Structure formats: C-alpha cells, structure tokens
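Thread: "does anyone have the structure for this chain?"

Original post by V.I.:
We have the sequence but no experimental structure in hand. Need at least a predicted one for the grant figures.
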Amino acid sequence: MLQMVAAGRGLCALPGWLVNEYSKYMPIQSLRFGEHGINKQIFVGIRKDEQDIDYLNEFIAQAKQTK
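Reply from O.Q.:
Generated one for you, tokens below.
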C-alpha cells in the first residue's frame, strides 16, 4: 500500500506515527482529512495469563504515549 502511494498511484488512510516512520525511507507525506482530522480511539485488552508478556506490555506503553 505504501509503495503504491510512494509511486504516486494511490492514497491511503494511516495513523500519523506510521506515516512519520515510513516517510524517512519513502517519498510519502501526511495530509489531514478535514479541518480536525479523524477522531479515533484505541482499546486494548489482554488475557490475565498474558499480563507478564514483555512485548505486550511494551506495546501498551507505546500506545499510551502516542497521540
């Protein structure tokens, strides 16, 4: 999908953090949809027996820091 955008053959809706990351390596740019962008919420749930898995905890920590 990003390769099509970089080639000027399409567009896609992605989170800003993803565009920021890939714009370092690809000729893509971020544009806002509408005056205020798209309002979103992310809900994360994990099972009790998965609460001590490091990569899940790191993902949740990163999600909390991303706006």
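V.I.: this helps a lot. The chain is about 35% helix and 0% strand.
O.Q.: and The helical segments are 2-6, 16-22, 54-65.
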